[in-house]
Automatic annotation (TrEMBL):
Top-level division of the source organism's lineage: Bacteria
UniProt keyword Transmembrane present: yes
Residue stretches spanning the membrane: 37-56, 63-84
Name listed for the protein in its UniProt record: DUF4260 domain-containing protein
Alphabetized InterPro entries for the sequence: DUF4260
Pfam families: DUF4260
Amino acid sequence: MTEKGSVSGGIKDLLRIEGLTVLLLSLFAYSEFGSGWGLFALCFLLPDLSLLGYIVGARIGAVLYNTAHSYVGALLCVAAGVYLSQPLAVSSGIIWIAHIGFDRSLGYGLKYENGFRFTHLGTIGRPKS
C-alpha cells in the first residue's frame, strides 16, 4: 500500500525512468555546453544543501527541498544563461537539472510536509520502529 498522494507500480517506474532519461540527457548537454567536468563534480550535490532546512522543521525542510529540487528554477537558470550569454549560468542550470534527474531516478521525489520520508514517488527509507 502506498501513502495517499504518492504513485506506485508502473507509474512510479515510469517516473523513475523519466528521471534517468533527464540525467542522461543532461550529461550529454553538459558535454556539449558545460564548463568542465571539475565544475560538474563540485556542484552536483549542491541542491542537497536544502536538506539543512529540516534542522528547522519538516515544513521548512520540505519547502526548501522542493524549491531546490523542482525543474522550474533549473530551467530558468539555463534560460537566463542562454538569453544573457552567460555560459556559467547555462552550465549551472544543466548541473542542477542533472541532479534532479539523478534523485528522481533513485526514487527521491518532492517532499510532503509530514517528513522527509514522504514524497510524491512514495515513502523512502525504513519506518521508525
